[in-house]
Structure formats: structure tokens, C-alpha cells
Amino acid sequence: MSELALETCPERRRWWSNPIWRRYARSRLRPQALGVGLLLIWISAGFLFFFTRTLGAYRFKLGVVDAERAPLVPLLVLQAILLFFVGTGQVAGGITAEADEGTLDYQRLSPMRPLAKVLGYLLGLPLREWCLFGATLPFTAWGLWRGEVGVGTWLPVYAALVSSAILYHLTGLVAGTVVKNRRWAFLISLGAVFLLYTVIPQAAKFGLVFFKYLTLWPVIDENLANLLPREAGGVWRLAKSFEPEVRFFGLRFSEAVFTLFSQGVLSLTLGVMLWRRWRRAESHLLGKGWALGVFGWMQLVLLGNALPLIEPGLLFPSRQFSRRYLPKENWEPAVGEALGMIGLYGLVTLLLMVVLTVIITPSVETQVRGLRRGHRLGWRRLPWFSDAASSFPFVVLMALVGAAGWTVFAERLMGSSWFAGHPLGAQAGPTLALVLLGAGLSCQAILEGWGGRRLFLAAVFAGVVPLLAGGIVGTVGSRSLVSATWLVGLSPVAAPGYAVACLLPTVDWPPEVALALPRAFWFWQGLTGLLGCWLLVRLRQIRRARAVAVAATGRGAV
Amino acid sequence: MSSAAIQIKDLRVDYGDFVAVDDVSLEVGAGEIFGLVGPNGAGKTSTFRVLATLMEPTYGSVRLAGVDIFEEPEAARRVMGYMPDLAPVPSDLKVWEFLDFFAEAHALGSAGLRRERVEECLGQVNLLEKRGVYCQTLSRGQTQRLVLAKTLLHRPRVLILDEPASGMDPLSRRQLRLALRGLAAGGATVIVSSHILSELAEMCTSLCVMQRGRLLASGTVDEVRGLLGRVERTVSVGVLEREAEALAWLEGRAQVAEAQRVGGRITFRWSGDAREQAGLLAGLVREEFLVCAWEEQKSSFEEILMDVAAAAETPALEV
Fold first, then answer.
1. Which range has the worst mean pLDDT, A281-285, A491-495, A527-531, B315-319?
2. Which residues from B are below 8 Å from A20, CB to CB?
3. Deepest in the core among A350, A419, A481, B16, taking most CB within 10 A?
4. Nearest CA to CA, how far is A86 from chain B (Å)?
5. What is the C-alpha separation between B102 and B90, in angstroms, rounded?
6. Taking residues B179-202, what's their average pLDDT?
7. All residues at 6 or more sequence positions from B153 whose CB lies less than 8 Å from its CB, including other chains
8. B188 plus B271 within the same structural domain
9. Is A103 in Cβ contact with B89 (below 8 Å)?
């Protein structure tokens, strides 16, 4: 060997010899810990297997094939818990632990590509959980074989299981990379998975159909009939026959294909976040272009999944909640349902825009560093897409894209045959754009001009407190409803709902509320608009002062 | 292109309004052991983290062994070894596993070759007998040595060592010193920071002093001492008989200050140069004082640095 640096060639490394993966293969697969894990998992899986099988065969007098199918779903639940919760928690906790110990810096220094590092952690940290998952597969394989379940049934289910697990692991990895506290990272990642399986599916029933494809449910739904004993499966198959396959604008997909596609795109986005952080620890989680792309893509899939379901009546909550049964004769959706759906669409769009705005807006420190660098290098202005550049144009674009999507959703819904006579006026688009622009730009200006702490305070006092205070005031009695309406209207969170209520005054509100609601909406929107303009002017002054200070001293006192 | 192994040009690091490294430019030749000294908050660790590609500076350029670390960070990581201050180790790996992981990350060949190199490095830091224990069971000094072994694994051309000797016993420090000298003799360049300044002075071929993110002086140890050291030195004189008269005579000289009798000798602060000092001694002899001892006490390097640190409270030193 040379006395000087060894000529190392990491490019020649085989994919299976990823050092980070192998490092975790060593530490997480030590015989003692793995042995205990295997023992516990075999006891659990064995119990589920024999208990349900015996129960089916002897208690319910099922035939051999049906009895062998009985353990498949309980085993799938066990496998999902193992991968989704334990594995994801391990990923988030493991990466935070490395950051905590300080050993993460060593990995940064390894001459490996950022993608190799992401893959090493993604596949290495939850390795024990994947091994334990593997240990349950013989029971499943037996059930599939003796239960005569075809490849066409179990392959999509397990493909979606793996895809979901990877998506959640990536969520855990991002949480662990961003959150400094190990316990918080663990809880946040588990909370995200929990929300995905509890709250998000409910949103899917209110018109935001796309969200359900981030879970395993649609694929299970599609294939459950063939995983259950045949009698039970028959009932499920009948119920399922009333449901459509996935529709995306004019296209039709199987649930499995669309789930894999949706999860794949989200996994890619999370992968990009991690790649950026591994490449440069200080960089934003997403570049400005990516964030805009992600936002546009979300609008596209939300609309693509929702619009084709409007005319058949399959989008409405009243139908969603009773979708296992034939709809009642003369069933038709209520106007209130549609308004709720439009409001929720706007709220989700607003929240998504705020999250992406927080990700791409430069902190004061990042701006000053960028200005100093630009000054040093003689740039006339910072590059548009650089982290240090203002996020203003991108927030405007997101607000406009969001308003377009929201308007299309509202117009198609209210223009459908279900709601003839309730057309949306021409002012709908500008009004919805105003809601998104006011909230988005105020958020961007506060964050960019005054920092995250001020934004947090603004979110609490302008976003949450009015809702809570309005709730309290509203409970006092019918006389206080007007005050409550005004109070709640102050919160940008309520703005999408208020906007819809103003554009389509079709719900029978109490007269005083019906009068107060549009007044409150326009008053607060006017005030938000004025405040937003003032914040933007101040922000421009602050940025100019920072640039002047940097040019004058090279130090940029801020 | 310059032949310097480390080239830093106009490096600046900011944390908000705080300037951690302020337009530092520096060149270190191949085979040098270069020391970076300065009080806490001087900007040493920030400089090292930039060199190690762990941090992006506000601006500036850095080349390690000819590689631009911002353009080609992966290539830079192959030629550089970094040992952080209070270096951590993973709690779930054994000593040999920890080293083998990095040997693999640096693609040091087959399992056999890696094992050979790992043993070689463990031998170099005297930790061979600990190869099978968990890293977390090592003492502070042993942990430092283990991380040093990890840093040496791929035989880097540039070694960046932030306080490498902290926690080491005297024997380990000596081994470290010898190891670094051996590496430098083999052509590697070492940049090292330490608070044990006397050791740095012994170990380094050249050094620089940082304060408030700026380089105050750089050069050989003597050059830096000359640049930063006080012109005023402490002189101790032994006089047989008539001590009080000799004290009074010395107090009458313009370049003498704080003269006093301490333990049978007269000590005073002398602000003249060497020739004037010789004249002072001749004067004492001419006055028929029986001078039996004459000793000039140079300010130690620690003292100089203490002064530099104290100056942090006052406007920056201009050298």
C-alpha cells in the first residue's frame, strides 16, 4: 500500500455492500437480540396462525381451504404493525440517535454518494424488523398455499405493504433528520403513520380521495375478498362490486397500481429531501422548484381522483359513509356536503401551501449568508432558485396554482347535475385566490422578515386563538353567534370555509349569522390584504437594508 | 497551481451576526505539521469543520491536496481524515467493527485487506488488545485513540485533528506526537489544534494564532512568539552583598520596571533589546556589584496566548 492516500474507488462498490447497511446488519442482527425478537415474533405469529385456523376449522366448521385462509388477515395486521410502527420508529429514533451521539458527522465524511447514504440508512436501520417480518412469512406462505390464494391477489397486497413501509420509513428518516430530539422524532414518525390510518382516510371520504392511496387500505379493499374465507369473502366481494376502480381523470387503474404510483412519487419527494440534507447539511429540505412541483402535483392528483367521481355521486360523504350498501332510492347529496367538501379542499390546499412555504423560505441567517456570498462574488442578485433567495414569487405561484385547483374543484362540483341552480359566480376564482394569497404571503413575509418564532406566535394568536375564543363565545347562546362568527373569521384557517359560505349562500344559517358571515369574511380579508401589503413593503425594506449593510461592511448587521 | 497541501483563501464563516472566521487565508505545505491555536471562540473548530466538508462557509475557497472541497466534496473526503474535538463513537459497535465500517466506506479492498489495515491502525494507537470490546466501554483517552485510528485508516494526505490529545495520558500523547511526525515524514500534511500549547510547540513545524476569527500571526514557533510576544521580559539577577543598593541602581534605569527582591534575587521587567541588556549587565559590574547570576525569562507560549485571550476584551491586536 502507498504511504500516502490509498486510491479508493467507491464507485466500484456493489449495491449490496453498502457500508452503512452492513454496519447495521452487524449491530442490529446480533444473535442475542435477534434471537429474542424471533422468539417473540414466532410466538405471536404462531398464536395467530394456529388460533384463527383452529377457530375456523373447529368452531365455525369451515372447509380446509377456508380454514387455511383464516390466519392471513391477522398475520397481515401483525406484519403491518411490525414494519409501519416498529420499523419506522426505529428509523426515526436511530438516525436521531446518531445525530445525538455525534457519529452522524462521520457518515457525512464517508466518501459515499448521498443517495448511497440514504439507502444505507433506509434499509439498514429497520433491518431487524424486516428480518422479523421475514420470520412471519412461512406462516403466511402456508396460508396462501393451502388456502389456494392466487398470485394476483397476494402479490399486489405485499407489493403495497412493502411500498407503504418504505414510504413510512422515509417519513421517519426525514423526521429524524429534521427533529433534533430522539424521542420527538420517534413520536412524530409514529404519529404520522397513525394519522395516515385514522384521520387521512376520513378526509378521503370528504372528496380528497387521493389521500387514501398513501395507505394500504385501497389494495386491501381490492383484494380482501380473496384473502378471507370464501363465505366472508363473498360478502366483501358483493360490497366491493358497488365501488369503482381508481379513476384518474379519464383513466382507470387498479387500486394496487395507483397506490404504488402515488406512494412512489411521495417516496421520491422524501428521498430528494434526504438527498439534499446529505449533500449539504444546511440546505432546505426541498428546493423552490421542487416545492412548486410537489404542490402542483398534489393539486393534479386531488382533482384527478375527485372529478370523475362527482357525476356518479361517489365522491360525497353521505355516499362514502354508506358505500358498502346500495344507495337509497332517490338518494342525492345535500348542498351542505358540497360546501363542506369545497371548504376542506381549500383548507388542505392552504395548509399544504403553508408547509411548503415554511420549507422554502430562507431564515434571516441564510439570507444574510447568501447576500454576503453574492456581494463577495459580485452577483447583481441572488439566483432565483437558491435557498437564500426570497420565496415570494414561488408562494405567489403556489397560491395561484392552488386557487386554480380549488376553483376547478368547486366549479365542477357545483356545476354538476346534482346541484343545478347553484352556480358558482365569476368572482369565485379571484375570491379563492385572495384567501390563499393573503394567508400565504403574510406567512412568507413574517418568516422571511422576522423569523420562525414570530411566525409561530402569529400562527397561535391569529390562527388558533380566534377559533378557540369563537368556539367559547358561540356556546354562550344564540345572541353571541354573531360575535363568534366575527371572532372565528379572524383565523386564516376559517377563511376557506367562510369564502365558500359567501360564494354559495345556500345553507340555512340563522339570519343574523347569514348576515354577519360575509361581512366578517370581507372585513378580515380586507384587513389581511392590507396587513399582507404592509408586511411585504416592510420585508422589501428589511431585505434592502440587509443588502446595503452587507455591501457597506461585509458583515450585514441585521 | 501552488504546491501547498492546504490552501485556504478568503474563508469566512458567519453564524447570524457573529463572524466566526473572518476572511482567513492560509497555505500549508506538504509534509508540515501545522498548529492552529487560539482561545475558545477564536474560530478554530469552525475552520476545521469547513475543511472537513461538514459545513459550508459564507464564502471562500479551500483546496486540500489540490482538490476543491466545495466542487468535489467526495474526492476531498478521500484525501482527508478528520478527527473532531471530543470525538464520539457509536455505542452499538465493537472496536474492530467501527474501524471496518470506515475501511469499507473508503473501499479499502477485500475483507482480508481491511482486517490487515484495521489491525495495523489499532497497533499504531496501541489498542490491539481492545479490538473485540464495545466502543462505549473505552475510556476517554482510549476513545480518542480509537478515533485517531479511524482517521488514519485510509492514509489520508491531509489530517485535520481538532484537539486530538484531549483526554490522553502522557504516554499516549507521546505516541500521538510520534505518529504524526511519522505521517508527516511520509508526506502527509497535518493541521492540528490544541489547548496544550507547549505540546503544539514541540510537535508543529509551523503554526498560526487565531483570535476572533482572524489570523494574528503565522510562521514557525519562534517567529510567532516573536510576533506576538511582549518585548518586555522578566530578568532575574543574583547579587552578592549590597542588594538594596543594586535594587535602587536598577530602579534608576529607564527600561527597568517593577524591580523587587524575590528569594535572594532581584527581578524586574526589562523592555530593552539584547544589546541594551548586555550594557545593563556591564553597568552593574562597573558599579562593582558582585553579580553572581543573570537570567532572562522569556514569556512562555501559554503566557503569550493568555495575553491574546485577554486582548479579546479589548480591540483586536494588530500585528
1. B315-319
2. 105
3. A350
4. 19
5. 12
6. 82
7. B81, B99, B102, B103, B106, B108, B117, B118, B121
8. no
9. yes
- Answer whether A101 sits within 8 Å of B91, measured CB to CB: yes
Measured CA to CA, the distance from residue B80 to residue B65 in angstroms comes to: 9
Q: What are phi and psi of B256, to 5 degrees?
A: -105, 135
Query: Grid coordinates representing A60?
Result: 365455525
Per residue in B82-132, pLDDT (tens digit) is: 998 878 899 899 999 999 999 998 888 888 999 999 999 999 888 999 999
From B228, B247, B275, the end of a domain falls on B228
C-beta neighbour count of B312 within 10 angstroms: 16
Are residues B142 and B268 located together in one domain of the fold?
no
Are B217 and B246 in the same domain? no
ipTM score of complex: 0.77
- N-terminal to C-terminal alpha carbon distance within chain A: 53
- Enumerate residues 8 to 27 of chain B having a beta carbon within 8 A of any beta carbon in chain A: 10, 12, 14-17, 19
Q: Is A10 within 8 Å of B82 when comparing Cβ atoms?
A: no
CATH for B275: 3.30.70
Give A240's Cβ-side CA count (13 Å radius): 19
- From the CA of A266, how many Å to the nearest CA of chain B? 28
Q: Structurally, how many domains does chain B consist of?
A: 2
Contact A278, A118 (CB under 8 A): yes
* pLDDT greater than 90 at residue B48: yes
Residue contacts between A and B (CB atoms, under 8 Å): 122
**Chain B residues touching A98 at Cβ < 8 A:** 90
| Amino acid A375: pLDDT | 85
What sign has the CA pseudo-torsion A244, A247, A253, A254?
negative
Each residue's pLDDT tens digit, A167-196: 999 999 998 888 877 788 888 888 888 887
Do B121 and B23 lie in one domain? The reply is: yes
The residue in chain A having the minimum alpha-carbon distance to the alpha carbon of residue B111 is: A17
Q: How many CA atoms lie within 13 A of A201 on its CB side?
A: 12
The backbone region for B212, taken as left when phi is positive above 0, alpha when psi lies in -120 to 50, beta otherwise, is left
One domain, residues B129 and B242: no
B194 and B151 in a common domain: yes
**Mean per-residue pLDDT for A448-477?**
92
The alpha carbon dihedral of A61, A62, A68, A70 has a sign of negative
Q: How far is CA A42 from CA A38, A123, A437, B60, in A?
A: 6, 23, 55, 58
Length of chain A measured in residues: 558
Contact at CB, A98 and B89, closer than 8 angstroms: no
Contact: A27, B52; criterion CB under 8 Å: no
pLDDT, tens digit (0-9, with 9 covering 90-100), for A340-361: 899 999 999 999 999 999 999 9
In a domain, B166, yes or no: yes
**Interface contact flag, B155 A2, Cβ < 8 Å:** yes
What pLDDT is attached to residue B137?
A: 93
C-alpha cell at B56: 459550508
Domain residues for B279?
233-298
* Composition of chain A by helix, strand, coil, percent to 5: 75, 0, 25
> Cα-atom radius of gyration of chain B, to the nearest Å?
24
Q: Please judge whether A1 and B79 are an interchain contact, meaning their C-beta atoms are less than 8 angstroms apart.
A: no
B181 with B294, same domain: the answer is: no
B194 and B283 together in one domain: no
> Does residue B49 belong to any structural domain of this protein?
yes
Does B197 fall in a domain?
yes
Is residue B319 included in any domain, yes or no? no
Print the SS3 string covering A420-453: CCCCCCCCHHHHHHHHHHHHHHHHHHHHHHHCHH
Confidence of residue A82 (pLDDT cuts 50, 70, 90): very high
Q: Quick one: average pLDDT of B140-150? A: 89
Residues of A in contact with B92 (CB under 8 A): 27-28
Taking the C-alpha atoms of residue B93 and residue B104, their distance in angstroms, rounded to an integer, is 15
